[in-house]
């Protein structure tokens, strides 16, 4: 490790730095920033100190930015904006569908129950394995809800500190989670009843995913990053469930088509909510938001189920994504379309006066991104066309091979 060795050789002995730091600070009551300046003056050639100083300045700038974002979130809750524009996008509980409305009823007679389950299984028999894999991947992603809720609670000014906070963001977050909770339940019960998948392997995958968590956005506590990610993620899940619904109908499973259709409709409302909130943040702080958008885009919007595994296939998410791409449930082209949609919706190209240099660079990057993604997608498509067919065994469907390329 030559880099580390060089750094250690150039750095002053840790004890002398500590002693000097503490005595000087006590005598003059300096701030940490001025003490750092003194240290830099005394050891001007130390890359170690320069790096520490830079990272401290970067950390201070990040903390200041998040503090400003938090104040904006608090204002939106206090002035009633969240109540007026976000909460109406949640369905009142008594009007909301529940999984029991869409699956065989166990309140019926025993004969009727058997007949309803037999009908569901007969329709599901025609669903091909690649669509089942997409459905299981979507269901596993939905079942990661506890992780996503905990992420929501990390957002500065947008979390639910007590578990029953009364401010608008906390009520939104709980209402959103209550709607999302039905998605995993509904798909889980359909998959259990249809008899086409190995439920133990599917449940093991959910267990692994919840233990592994998620990595999604560069700054989880940033409201801007979180609102932008929410808008992208809800739109991606809308596309995915809506396409699954269309394919299920094409294969004659009207029950599955309906299940995925009602879930897609929920995702649409959630997307509208996060899109509105992001648009409001763009009005309040265009420079901060365009820089946040560029940061989220640079980190790439990854699906929340990215860390899934069944305990056997460490590349399970990649394989599931390849099947989704091949079957048209969710593709790289969809990602390019989404970036283009949000750039247009948030009028990013029209942001002008008031942008900092960094803001303008972020604007250029984001506005040029859809073209770059399209070009990369064309190249990937050409490469895939030249590849030989490749299959992977999915434990979810009893280790049957499913084509990924
Ligand atoms: Fe969902
Ligand atoms: Fe959603």
From TrEMBL:
Subcellular location, record wording: Plastid, Chloroplast
Entry-linked InterPro entries: Fatty_acid_desaturase-2, Ferritin-like_SF, RNR-like
Cofactor(s) the protein needs: Fe cation; Fe(2+)
GO MF terms held by the record: metal ion binding; stearoyl-[ACP] desaturase activity
Transmembrane parts of this sequence: none
Pathway annotation from the record: Lipid metabolism; fatty acid metabolism
SUPFAM superfamilies reported for this sequence: Ferritin-like (SSF47240)
UniProt record similarity statement: Belongs to the fatty acid desaturase type 2 family.
Name of the protein: Acyl-[acyl-carrier-protein] desaturase
Native organism: Setaria italica
């Amino acid at each position: 490790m030559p880099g580390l060795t060089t750094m250690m050789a150039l750095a002053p002995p840790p004890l002398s730095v500590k002693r000097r730091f503490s005595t000087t600070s006590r005598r003059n009551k300096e701030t940490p920033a001025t003490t750092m300046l003194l240290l830099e003056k005394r050891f001007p050639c130390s890359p170690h100190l320069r790096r520490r100083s830079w990272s401290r300045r970067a950390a201070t700038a990040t903390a200041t930015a998040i503090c400003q974002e938090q104040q904006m979130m608090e204002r939106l809750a206090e002035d009633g904006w969240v109540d007026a524009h976000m909460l109406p996008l949640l369905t009142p509980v008594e009007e909301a569908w529940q999984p029991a409305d869409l699956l065989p009823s166990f309140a019926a007679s025993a004969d009727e129950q058997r007949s309803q389950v037999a009908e569901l299984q007969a329709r599901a028999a025609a669903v091909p394995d690649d669509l089942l894999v997409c459905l299981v991947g979507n269901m596993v992603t939905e079942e990661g809800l506890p992780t996503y809720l905990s992420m929501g609670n990390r957002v500065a000014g947008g979390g639910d500190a007590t578990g029953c906070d009364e401010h608008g963001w906390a009520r939104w977050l709980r209402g959103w989670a209550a709607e999302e909770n039905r998605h995993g339940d509904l798909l889980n019960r359909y998959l259990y009843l249809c008899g086409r998948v190995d439920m133990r392997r599917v449940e093991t995958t959910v267990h692994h995913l919840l233990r592994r968590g998620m990595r999604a956005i560069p700054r989880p506590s940033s409201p801007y990053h979180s609102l932008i990610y929410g808008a992208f993620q809800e739109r991606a899940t809308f596309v995915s469930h809506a396409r699954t619904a269309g394919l299920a109908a094409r294969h004659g499973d009207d029950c599955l088509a309906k299940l995925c259709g009602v879930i897609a409709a929920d995702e649409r409302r959630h997307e509208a909510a996060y899109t509105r909130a992001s648009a409001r943040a763009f009005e309040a702080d265009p420079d901060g938001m365009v820089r946040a958008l560029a940061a989220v885009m640079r980190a790439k919007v990854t699906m929340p189920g990215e860390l899934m595994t069944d305990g056997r296939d460490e590349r399970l998410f990649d394989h599931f994504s390849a099947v989704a791409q091949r079957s048209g449930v969710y593709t790289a082209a969809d990602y390019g379309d989404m970036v283009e949609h949000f750039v247009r919706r948030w009028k990013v190209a029209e942001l002008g006066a008031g942008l900092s240099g960094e803001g303008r660079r972020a604007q250029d990057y984001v506005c040029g991104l859809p073209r770059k993604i399209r070009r990369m997608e064309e190249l990937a498509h050409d490469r895939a066309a030249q590849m030989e067919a490749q299959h992977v065994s999915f434990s979810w469907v009893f280790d049957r091979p499913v084509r990924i390329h």
